[in-house]
From TrEMBL:
InterPro entries: ATP-dep_Glu-Cys_Ligase-2, DUF403. It comes from the Bacteria. Residues 1-306 form the DUF403 domain. Pfam families: Alpha-E (PF04168). This is Putative alpha-E superfamily protein.
Length: 314
């Protein structure tokens, strides 16, 4: 497979996953608004910090309001990581990859693009945000389902697995960071178990609530949820599972030694939370280190396969 084709498929998968995960991340905070007791509030600006977008945000917005944060994450054309920007990039990568992916992918991607373009204001405004985000998530899942059900398990498929899972692993760390930050917030005393509410929302944002209950078989506690989303070997959105899937895909690709070495190093950083008392700034620093390692992994993937000159293959 030509490196330019492989690169388009890799980024197609990354943008598709990024769109869904951005919608999921905003949804966590949006859903919390309806469950927090009266008198408590949440800092929407933390979503900017979690997404490493503070510098870009401050260049265009003076107020750290809910509306400005959501607009930046969903609708801002100048934010390269916004949902709108990601959909444009997804559409372009699908358009230029139509000869190696199912033909229906182009139609479904266009439908999603048109829906978001025409309804993005619903995502910014609170009243219809849930409906908008749900539609985006379900549309991404339709496209993913098509690709899973109709792509040959060849080199293109393995590059898609790499792209999907590096993006998914990154967002899992950001979801955990969001949950940890919220759990550390000084909320007013209440009869409601706010920690349980927060971590239930994190699980639901990952579609992991029921599988967590079946697998862990314990009450929803911060330490249990964090360990599950980091280390479970069977659920497809846990960090460990994503890294394993990338390693498995890389194994079937040529010249994969350098990529698999980085993946091995990442797997060696396994972290186990003993209690909720361990969810401190040190744990958030650990999550940040994982994100840095994933950036390094992306750089190695690009250097190894996409910056590779075809004539050097001999």
């Amino acid at each position: 497979m030509l490196s330019r084709v492989a690169e388009r498929i890799y980024w197609l998968a990354r943008y598709l996953e990024r769109i869904e995960n951005t919608a999921r991340l905003v949804s966590v905070y949006d859903n919390l608004l309806y469950d927090l007791p009266r008198g408590n509030s949440i800092s929407w600006y933390n979503l900017i910090v979690i997404n490493s977008g503070t510098e870009q945000f401050h260049e265009r917005y003076k107020v750290k309001s809910e509306r400005n944060v959501v607009k930046f994450l969903l609708a801002d054309d100048d934010n390269y990581a916004s949902l709108m920007s990601s959909i444009r990039m997804l559409r372009e990568n699908v358009r230029t990859s139509r000869d190696v992916i199912p033909s229906e992918t182009w139609e479904l991607t266009n439908e999603l693009y048109i829906y978001v373009r025409e309804n993005i204001s619903q995502g910014v405004n609170r009243s219809k945000r849930h409906e908008f985000l749900t539609h985006v998530i379900e549309s991404c899942q339709m496209i993913t389902g098509l690709l899973v059900g109709a792509m040959a398990r060849d080199a293109g498929w393995n590059f898609m697995i790499l792209g999907c899972n590096i993006e998914r692993a990154d967002m899992t760390t950001r979801m955990l960071d969001a949950g940890t930050f919220l759990a550390m917030e000084p909320f007013e005393e209440s009869n409601v178990n706010l920690t349980q509410v927060i971590w239930s929302k994190v699980l639901r944002s990952q579609s992991a609530y029921l599988t967590y209950r079946r697998t862990v078989r314990r009450a929803i506690r911060a330490s249990n949820v964090v360990n599950y989303l980091l280390n479970d070997e069977q659920f497809p959105r846990t960090f460990y599972y994503c890294v394993e899937q990338m390693d498995r895909a890389a194994k079937y690709l040529p010249r994969s030694a350098s990529v698999r070495t980085v993946l091995k190093d990442i797997k060696s950083l396994k972290y186990v939370i003993e209690s909720s008392q361990d969810l401190t700034d040190d744990f958030r620093s650990y999550l940040n280190e994982l994100q840095i390692d994933l950036i390094k992994l992306n750089e190695v993937i690009v250097e190894n396969w996409f910056a590779f000159k075809e004539e050097d293959a001999a």
